[in-house]
Amino acid sequence: MTDSLAEHYGDTLPIAIIGAGCRFPQANSLFEFWRRIADGEELISRFDAAALTAAGVDPALLQRSDFVPAASVIENAERFEWQFFGYSRQEAESIDPQQRLFLMCAWEALEMAGYQPNTLQDRVGVIGSCRMSTWQTATAADAQNIVTPATFQKLMGNDKDYLATRVAYKLGLRGPAYTVQTACSSSLIATHLACEAIASGEADMMLAGGASLSFPQQAGYFHREGMIFSRDGHCRPFSADADGTLVANGAGVVLLKRLDRAVEDGDAILAVIRGTATNNDGSDKAGFTAPSLSGQREVIQDALAIAGVSADTIGLVEAHGTATPLGDPLEIAALTEAWSPASPTAGQAAIGSLKSNLGHLDTAAGVGSLIKASLALWQQQIPPTLHFSAPNPAIDFSKTPFRVPTHLEPWPVPKHGWHRAAVSAFGIGGSNAHTILESAPVRQNPPSQAGVYPLLLSARTPSALRALAQQHAARLSDREPGFSTNEYAATSLYHRSLFPCRVLLLARDADGWLAQLLDLLEVPEGDAAKTMYVAEAVALSETQRQGWQQQLSADKPDWQRLFAESARRSLLPVAPFEGELCVPPRAAVSEAKSPWLTVIEAGHNQANTLSAELDLSVLDEENRCVDALHCHYVSALFDQIPLEQPLGDCHAIMALLNIPARYSDLMQRMLCDLTAAGVLVTLPDGYLLRHRPEVDAAGWLKRMREVGYHHLAALIARTGPELGNMLRGTVDPVSVVFPAAATDDVEHMYQEQPWSRYFNSLASSVLQKLAENHTAPIRVLEIGGGTGGTTRDMLQALPPGRCSRYTFTDLGPLFLQKPKRSFEIMTSSIIRPLIWSNRPRARGYRPITMTSLWRPMYCITVPICVSCFDALRRC
Fold first, then answer.
1. Which of 293, 623, 649, 835 would you call most buried, defined as having the most Cβ atoms within 10 angstroms of its Cβ?
2. How far apart (Å, rounded) are the C-alpha atoms in residues 562 and 554?
């Protein structure tokens, strides 16, 4: 390193990033990744019913309002070139794709830097991280059969412990190799530890990074208020409408080396790590999963001190930025406090978050942010942060050194001469990491007098060669400041592995290469029959052409006679991986389909069959009738109250109408309905009676009978006029709903209406399949049996002799007498009619609780809940 550089870095030990491999959503290379984030692309996929079905996810979830069918997906994540890494197919199938992708990215990082694993002379190590495996989960049988090679292989292929050591073994690395697990900060802490290993002399070069994939990638997720996942599958860091992030999949690995060695060896340098720091929050926070302002502030201060730079010289911060309403303001506050001693100016630094593009990469989040910030330094451009509209109300950016860039910005060289960036990663559990980056030292390009510049493309298959051509085209379309055609050409010849499929492009400059690459990509994929050929955009003699062709075809080309090696290397794309679908034989691993899954499948099949037969043509008309009659009978409660009279709140209205407090929930619901209908209007302190609806109750009841709801119409005609008396307790509600203990109307509703037939048939088919798949005796507990509509279908579905006990429950004896007589005739099962909950004991019936029924027994107990959400809540 020159004296001027030594003076610049002082007592610090800068580490160079000299190579990288990555797999991010819709980006299979470093250069494609930069192009997409620079263009402000959102890399999140949305899943329709077909995509969910293909992934083994129930498409019916799309009907749920809280289901978000979105995630960031790695294309072809299940493909693997197992032969290239010396695996058998069987062993490769057992390895979690997280570990396979990490291995591929590690190879790519070395290859990009020009260091083939089989020629390594330096001591190289690897530190990495990955998410909990969802590829092949361990079972109790695995623990029992761990002595078998297949089981042992499966456990090693899916355990985090073997992530780094697998890479060390396959690539022949002899430096430190271990896995780091600190949740979201894992891969940035892995980078910190890799820098420490180089500084201590344990290694000459280190690979560091992380992988994060969950299967199926297309699972989607459920939104829950107050949790970290957004309601719509978008991530909006620092924005007023931010409400969280979403699941992302990806992997990234960087290759690190001491800067002085990298400069001496002519390595291409993506960026320089000036300093790193880690710490933990301890208990100084609201909870284990909560962030800590002091923890974040201190780790940022430590990193600045170790880097030996002032905060007012930093122009870009790649934040953790999860887009949570509380997390983002806390992170801005921690940064602002940590930077305050340097007196930075307002809006001095752009602040962004990769999560706005693709969501949360979990264990790979830190290395993803590190690669993004390094590319920004290399390109001298600041990429945008997506979905930022107005600032989070808890963030006043005018009082901070930060601003959120919403479009790609040029990044002029600062007055002090160096572009600098900072990267944060904060893990659940409190392990924090912060890194200070700097642009690579400027290299003066020596003049080159070559009349022809060669660009060698080499890959393992014709399709991979085409993909490599696409990557070179993207790379050359977006050249960094200081780009050297000579170094690019020499790197392609002297510092890339040689594979069977090769193309040599000859041109006078990089624009000539780009034109040839675009022409090459215009050729239909099946028409490129040659596996080796020279394409020249310059005039060559026959002797020159033969010379290039001869070396291109050689096993060990001697390029020196044709093009001299450069003292410095350039960052070029590497031969892409393809491979084949490499998944374990799922059916063979699990000896048979789970009986419970079979039952669920039977339920889905029956639901699909029945839904096709379900006639809902009059459902809208039924709703109109019921809504009109509901408004009529509920508003009748206020017939004696003058219009425009303030009524007070719900409790005041109940007192006014002489309705007991136990009906407060019901009354509140009815008040909301009347407000929606315009009968009531809300005031700051309650309600006001504004309107009396004119409803033709007889006409609506007639319409209900015309569309087939005779029994429901009779029930409403009988109970509606008595609503006030039933609420006030002047008449017995049971005697009104069931006159002379007659249950005909209600029985018809629960047994013969289309919806009732649908649900009863669905439940009985599931119970029937359960009985077919199990030999143990079955006991059924039906909670809220009511008229016995569901019970009738369930008993008919059970094979003779399979049900040892059928417990039929409800709130009182009325619903227990008739079903008991009916069902004892239908079945030989022991029918136990029981009163549910803690109501007073009635003659001949015993009150029950759940604990009195769930005793250990050698049988299958099936609870069935029918129209009894209160009972479900208490279970």
1. 835
2. 14
